[in-house]
């Protein structure tokens, strides 16, 4: 079910990203996310360690780690939410990386709740110039998880 993604699969992962990020961030115009496709494809996905959750040849979720500890992306297809895919992907990367950081929009309470449930803590706040929205910086360390 979880496996490392192949470079040739990045277009399919990008499609999943666009669908999931548009659905998960209703407070941001979908046109903004479409404009971000080249950046996400070329700067993030192409330079990250990516794992996918695949079910019968269909990608239902993915997670991307950059620079060994930055959780750059974690998305589950809207139709697959609450099936344990996000938790399984998170556990997969937590087993491989003893320290993770991420940035999440403060308006994205479902994601914040999910990250808290996975042992992340808010450590700072930031501001996204492009969207003009505040974010939380969240941290997880293996030795601090009960």
From TrEMBL:
Keyword Metal-binding: no
Record field: transmembrane: none
UniProt keyword annotations, A-Z: Acyltransferase, Transferase
The keyword Hydrolase is annotated on this UniProt entry: no
Domain N-acetyltransferase: 1-143
GO-annotated molecular function: acyltransferase activity
PROSITE patterns in alphabetical order: GNAT (PS51186)
EC identifiers of the protein: 2.3.1.-
InterPro entries noted in UniProt: Acyl_CoA_acyltransferase, GNAT_dom
Alphabetized NCBIfam families for the sequence: PRK10562.1 (NF007853)
Protein name listed in UniProt: N-acetyltransferase
Species the sequence originates in: Escherichia ruysiae
Biological classification of the source: Bacteria, Pseudomonadati, Pseudomonadota, Gammaproteobacteria, Enterobacterales
